[in-house]
Fold each of these.
Amino acid sequence: MLSRLYQRILGNPFVYEHVRPLVVGGVDYTTAWNDLDVGPDEVIVDVGCGTGDGHKHLTRYKAYHGFDTDPIAVDYARTRTAGRPNVHLHARLLVESDLQTIKPDKVMLGSLLHHLSDDEALGLLGMLARTPNLKRVTTVDNTPLPGRYLNNFFVRLDRGQHSRTAEGYMALAERAGLKVTRTLLHRIHPTRGLMMLFLMRLEPPAAR
Ligand SMILES: C[S@@+](CC[C@H](N)C(=O)[O-])C[C@H]1O[C@@H](n2cnc3c(N)ncnc32)[C@H](O)[C@@H]1O
C-alpha cells in the first residue's frame, strides 16, 4: 500500500515535471532526441510518452503518436500539445496492429525499458523488429553502475523496477532481433545531472 502511494506520488505530473528534476540535478533528454534525429517527413511513435516531454525537443515531424498507460500523464501531454498539428495521443498499451497502421519511421522508448519486465520488453522490442519500414529506435534508461552510490540510490528510488546494466539492455534488444548500432552512457543533465542514463540506438535487421 505504501509502495502504491509512493508510485502515485512519483507519477503525479507536477512531481514528474518539477520535483524530480530538482532531486536529480536536472533532467534533459536532448541527447536521446538528437540521437533519434527526426526529419520533417518522418512519422514518430513515442512509447511511454508520459507528460509529453518529447515536445520540448521535437520541432519537425510528419506525425507524432504518443502511447502511455497512465491516463493522467496523457491528459497532461494533451494540454501541453494542444494546437500542435498531427499529434495523436493514446492512453493505452501499444499493440502490433498500431505499428502496422501507423508505420513509424522512428520510435522513442524514453525511460521506458526499466519499467518493463523482460517478457514485456521482449514483446515490445519484438513488435518493433517486425515493423515494416522502421529505420531507428532510440532507448534511454537509468542503469546501476559499480561504485556510483548516488546514481544507484536514485535507480532504487525510481518507479521503474527493472533497471538493468548496459549489457542487460543490449542483450534484450538483440534477443528481440534488433541490432544495437550505438551506445552512450551520459548524465541525465549535461552539467548538473547526478544520475547516469544508458542510451541505445537500435535498428531492425537489414534483410526483412
Ligand atoms: C519515466 S516515464 C518517461 C516519460 C517520458 N518518456 C519522458 O521521458 O519524460 C515512463 C512512462 O512509461 C509509462 N509506461 C510504463 N509502462 C508502459 C507500457 N507498457 N506502455 C506504455 N507506457 C508505459 C509510464 O506510465 C510513464 O509515463
Amino acid sequence: MRDQNKANLNIDEFREIFLKYTQKAFHLLPKLYNPQILDIGCGTGVPTIELAKLTNGYINAMDINSKDLRKLENKIIEYGLENRIKIIQGSLLNYKFEPLTFDIIWAEGVIHIIGFKRGFKACHKILKKGGFLVLHETIKGIQDYINHLSSFGFILYDWFQLPDNAWWNEFYNPLELRIKELSQMNLNKNLRKEISRYKKEINMVKSNPKNFNTAFYILQKS
Ligand SMILES: C[S@@+](CC[C@H](N)C(=O)[O-])C[C@H]1O[C@@H](n2cnc3c(N)ncnc32)[C@H](O)[C@@H]1O
C-alpha cells in the first residue's frame, strides 16, 4: 500500500475544468457596472471565485451546506476577496432578500433541486427589472420550463449547450481514473465513503452520458 498522506480527492480540481463554460456564459451578458450578484447553491464556490475574477461586482454566495461554505471561506481569504464576496448559509426559499436587489443571479446545478417553479418565482422577486438569471442545468430536466418562460416573467436572452457528453468526457471519466489510482492506496474511512458516493454517480453517467448533457440558459426578467 502506498502512503496514506498522498491519498486525497479534491473534486474542485475536476469541477474547475468547467469554468471555461462559466466564463463563456458570463461573456454573453451585457457589460454591467459593479453588478450585485447572487450565486445560489454556490457549494465550495468554484464558480463564485471565477465570477469575482470576471466582474468588479459584489457577490452574495449562498448555500445550505456549511461544510462546503467553510471551504469557500478559505478560498475567499486565500484570494483576498473578503470585501467582494459575502457568504450566506441558508436556503433561497427561506432567506428574506429585499425585492429588486440583484442584477445577476447565478445558479449552476441548483434550481432543479429547489424546484423550477419555486426557484423561478423566488429569483424573479429579488432580481431588478431587466436583471439576469443564469442557469446551468441538464437539458432534459429544464426543457419544458424553457418553453414556458413567459409564464414565469422571463425571456430567453441567450443560451448554449456544452459539447455532447461533456460531463462524461471532462469530469466523470477523469474522476474515475483518479479513483482507480486511489484504490491502490490506503484510504481513511471518510475518503472511502466519499469515493463510494462518486462511484454511484460515475456509473449513472457512464450508462447514459447523453442524459447528462447540460446547457447554460441566460434568462432576463421581463
Ligand atoms: C450540484 S451543487 C452545485 C454547486 C456549485 N454551484 C457548482 O456549480 O459547483 C448544488 C448545490 O446547491 C445547494 N443547494 C441545494 N438546495 C439549496 C437551497 N434551497 N438553497 C441554496 N442552496 C441549495 C447544495 O447544497 C449544493 O451545494
Amino acid sequence: MATLGELFVEGVRRLAQAENRNARLDAQVLLEHATGMERSVCYAYPEREVTAEQEQHFLALLERRLQGEPVAYLVGHKEFYGLDFLIDKRVLIPRPETELLVEAALEVIRRKLSAGQVPIIADVGTGSGIIPVTLAVEEPRLPYLYASDISADALEVARLNCQRHRVAQRIRLLHGDLLASLPERVDVLTANLPYIGNNEIDMLTADVFDYEPHLALFSGPHGLDLLHRLLIAAQQLAILKEKAVVLLEIGYQQRAALEQFLHEVWPQATVTFTKDYAGWDRLLLLQT
Ligand SMILES: C[S@@+](CC[C@H](N)C(=O)[O-])C[C@H]1O[C@@H](n2cnc3c(N)ncnc32)[C@H](O)[C@@H]1O
C-alpha cells in the first residue's frame, strides 16, 4: 500500500521529468483530489497509507496531466478572487489577470453606489460566470446583473456557479451574440472576450490549444474582431447609459491597435489602460 508522501514524490518526479514548471503544485492538487484529503493532512501525515482505489485514481490523473490536460479540468474546479468555481471543458479556465478587471469594475460600481445610483451591469462572454458571480458576491447592494454568452454549454456552467455562490436570483443569464439579447441599457459593461489571433496559434501551449474551447480563445486574424464588434455594437445600439463605463480585458500587445480604432470610431470616449503585474496593458477602461 502506498503512502501520501510516496505518491507525492512520485508525482513530482514524473511531472518534473516532463518539464512541468508547476510539478509540486500540480502533484499536490491531484493528490488532494484523488484522496479527498486536505493539503494540511497530506503535508502533516506523509506516512499515511492510501487505499488501492485512491492510488489508482491519483496515477490515472497524473497520466492525464502528463498528456497535457489542465489541472482545473482534471479536478473540476479553480479558485478565482478567493472563490471556488466549477470548471469543465465547456468553459475557459479562469486566469489571474481577470482579477484586475474585477477589481477595477468593483471600484467603478462602488463609486456609482456611493453617488446614490444603483448601476445596471452586464458581463459579455461570461463563460463560467466568474466575473458577474464575483461582482454579485463582493457587492451585495447590486440587485441584479446580466451575463451573456454565445455558448449555451458555457451558460450551463455559469448557472451552476451562480447556484454554488447563492447569487442565482441576482444573475440573469442571456444566450446570444455579444449585446444582442441585452434587454436594457447599462451603466457598466464588462467583457473578457476571446482575443487571441489566428496568427498566434503557434505560440499557444498544447494544454491550451488542445483542451480549452476554441470559441473562448480565438477572435479573427489579430484577435481583435470581437472587441471591435463589441465596441461598435455598444455605440450603435446605444446600449450604454450616460456616464457609462466599459471594462475590457485585452491581449498584451493590443493597446496601440485599440487606441487607434477607438480614435477613429469613438473619438469622444475617454480611454485609459491598466497594466498587469508583468507590465503589459491588459485592461481597457472606456468612459462615455
Ligand atoms: C475568454 S472566454 C472568457 C470567459 C470568462 N469571462 C472568463 O473571464 O473566464 C470568452 C467567452 O466569450 C464567449 N464568446 C465567444 N464569442 C462570443 C460572442 N460572439 N458573443 C458572446 N459571447 C461570446 C465564449 O463562449 C467564452 O465563454
Amino acid sequence: MKSIRVVVHGALGRMGREVINALCHEPEMQIVGAVDLKAAEDYLPLPDDSGTVPVSSNLDYILTTCQPDVLVDFTTAKAIMLAVLTATKHNVNLVIGTTGLTADELSEIDRLAIEHKVGAVVAPNFSLGAVLMMHLAKVAAKYLDYAEIIELHHHQKTDSPSGTALSTAKAMAAARGKPFYHLLPQEKRPGSRGEQVEGVTIHSIRLPGLLAHQEVILGGPGQTLIIRHDTISRECYMPGVILATKDVAKHKGLVYGLDTLLGLQEE
Ligand SMILES: NC(=O)c1ccc[n+]([C@@H]2O[C@H](COP(=O)([O-])OP(=O)(O)OC[C@H]3O[C@@H](n4cnc5c(N)ncnc54)[C@H](O)[C@@H]3O)[C@@H](O)[C@H]2O)c1
C-alpha cells in the first residue's frame, strides 16, 4: 500500500517533535519534510535513525520539494491562515492541532479546503480520552441536574478556565437543552465558588507537577457521578493525530473535532 507522505509544521516544537516521533513508527506513513521558524539546518534527523528529511522555515519551499499528502500543524494561531493558504494552494490535506482559531478562520479553512478539494481536520483536543470524557459528560448531563468541573493544569498555562472546561460545560448544557440547576448559597467570599458557565461551576487549579486533567462531577438526589480524564504525557494526543492523518483525505472541507472522526456525534 502507498504510504501517506507527511510534512510537520512546527516540527521543532513540543508537539511537533512528538508527532514526528509517533509518525516515524507508523508503517503506513512517511515523514518527508519539516517546517519550523526555528529551523537552522537544511536537514532534520528522524528519531528512528531511518535518515534525514529536508527542514526549512519556508513552508512553500518544503511543500514544493517534498510533495506531501498531508500537512500536520502544531504552531500558533497567528501562523495558521498563511499555512492553510499555502497548503491548499498545493492541494495538500491539513491536520491542525493548533488552538485558538476563530469562527471566521474555521469558515475560511472550510472554504479553502472545499475550493481545493482537500480535507482539513481541525481538533482542539486530539486526546481520545479527553474527547470521550466530554462525550460521556454530555450523555450524563441529560439525567443529572447539578454539575461542577474541576480542571487542573500546569502552572504555566495562562488561560483559565481551560478551553476544554468551557466547551465541556457548554456542550453539557446544550445536550440537556437547558442550563444546570444552581441552587447554592450565596458566596460569602467573592471568588470562592469558581466561575459559572450554564449553571456549571468551574474550578481552575494551577500547580507545578500537573499536566492537563479534568473532573466532571454530576450530582442528583443521594448520588454523584464523577468522570475524570488525566493527561500523563503528550503521547496521549498521538493516536488522535494518527487517526486524523490517515482519514483526512477521505473528506473534503472542514472536519471539526476528533469526535466527528470517531463517529461520536451521531450517538
Ligand atoms: N489539539 C491538541 O490536542 C493540542 C495538544 C497540545 C497542544 N496543542 C496546541 O498546539 C500548538 C503548539 O503547541 P506546542 O506546545 O508544541 O508549542 P511550541 O511552542 O512548543 O511549538 C510551536 C512550534 O511552532 C513553531 N512556529 C511558530 N510559528 C511558526 C510559523 N509561522 N511557521 C513555522 N513554525 C512556526 C515554533 O518555532 C515552535 O517550534 C499550540 O497552539 C497548542 O495549544 C494542541
